[in-house]
From TrEMBL:
Keyword Transmembrane helix: yes
Predominant cellular place of this UniProt entry's protein: membrane
Family: Belongs to the EamA transporter family.
Keywords: Membrane, Transmembrane, Transmembrane helix
Lineage: Bacteria, Pseudomonadati, Pseudomonadota, Gammaproteobacteria, Lysobacterales
Membrane-crossing residue ranges in chain numbering: 61-80, 92-109, 115-133, 145-164, 176-197, 209-227, 239-260, 267-284
UniProt organism field: Rhodanobacter geophilus
Entry protein name: EamA/RhaT family transporter
SUPFAM superfamilies given in the database record: Multidrug resistance efflux transporter EmrE
Keyword Transmembrane helix attributed: yes
Protein's membrane topology: Multi-pass membrane protein
Domain EamA span(s) in chain numbering: 2-132
Length: 285
């Protein structure tokens, strides 16, 4: 389980780095772009994927191109969500996006809906509502951005998971699909960063590159340790899945509350607990 813990820590570190970016004068758009440069290099070096599956006729290029566009844009949305809504709610929204991929499994991939999954989905939706809810006296504190960005993270990561399942269903190995989607996301991310710089945003600088490479290291570490966890426990995929998602929500909550003094209402706390219960039910269903 050490790999699961390491993967969860790397995932939360991504949110922590996004939270600290403005404090250190770093541009998140450029960090996201350099993150994909690191991700491509590390995936090619450590996973050593073969490009042969992508050369075959009928390759899943449509979902891969979709991932190439969605990955950097939703990464920027995650950065905005962490800034406006905090680490606790952003990480919970990201993990609850499995509800959308589960819905797609029922509608697109022929998976059957049983009582446990239905209960998990219902609790997950209630959890999402509780996590984005703002009480009356705090509703103006972060404005609409405090709940719109987490919702966009929820929808965006759900779409990413659905597209990733499409790629996997085409028989493309994980390493090959990762390096392909990261390589496709790289020019999109740099184009977005250049567009922001041209409109008066931060100029490209070594500081932003260094921050982005560190972000990419944590992002790739999340993936690498998650894969190793599945290899170490091949007979228990649900345990790995549940432990990873629950670990991210719990560690994200601890980081947000203890390190950044994020304040949660009773409704937000109830949503957090419901999120943990929903993830556990869906994992073991």
């Amino acid at each position: 389980m050490i790999y699961v813990l390491a993967s969860a820590i790397c995932s939360v570190l991504v949110s922590v780095l996004l939270k600290l970016a403005r404090r250190f004068g770093l541009d998140i758009g450029q960090m996201v772009a350099w993150n994909y440069a690191a991700a491509v290099a590390l995936t090619a070096l450590l996973l050593q994927p073969s490009p042969a599956p992508l050369r075959q006729a009928g390759g899943p290029w449509f979902p891969l191109f979709g991932l190439g566009v969605l990955l950097p844009t939703i990464f920027l949305a995650l950065g905005a969500s962490v800034r406006h809504a905090g680490i606790v709610r952003s990480d919970a929204a990201q993990r609850l996006s499995l509800l959308l991929s589960l819905l797609a499994a029922f509608l697109l991939f022929g998976e059957k809906l049983d009582a446990t999954k239905a209960l998990g989905c219902a609790l997950g939706l209630l959890a999402l509502l509780g996590m984005v809810w703002r009480s009356g006296q705090r509703r103006d504190e972060g404005g609409a951005a405090s709940w719109l960005w987490p919702l966009l993270v929820f929808v965006g990561f759900g779409m990413i998971d659905v597209l990733f399942k499409r790629v996997a269903a085409a028989g493309v190995p994980l390493g090959t699909s990762l390096v392909a989607m990261f390589a496709l996301a790289l020019p999109v991310a740099f184009a977005l960063a250049a567009w922001r710089a041209a409109r008066g945003g931060a100029r490209f600088s070594p500081r932003n590159a260094l921050g982005g490479l560190l972000l990419g290291l944590c992002n790739f570490g999340n993936i690498l340790f998650y894969l190793r966890a599945h290899r170490a426990l091949p007979q228990h995929p649900a345990l790995v899945f549940a432990s990873m998602n629950l670990g991210v929500v719990v560690l994200g909550a601890l980081a947000g509350v203890l390190l950044f003094r994020e304040r949660l209402s009773r409704t937000n706390l109830a949503g957090l607990l419901l999120a943990l219960l929903a993830i556990a039910l869906l994992a073991w269903a």
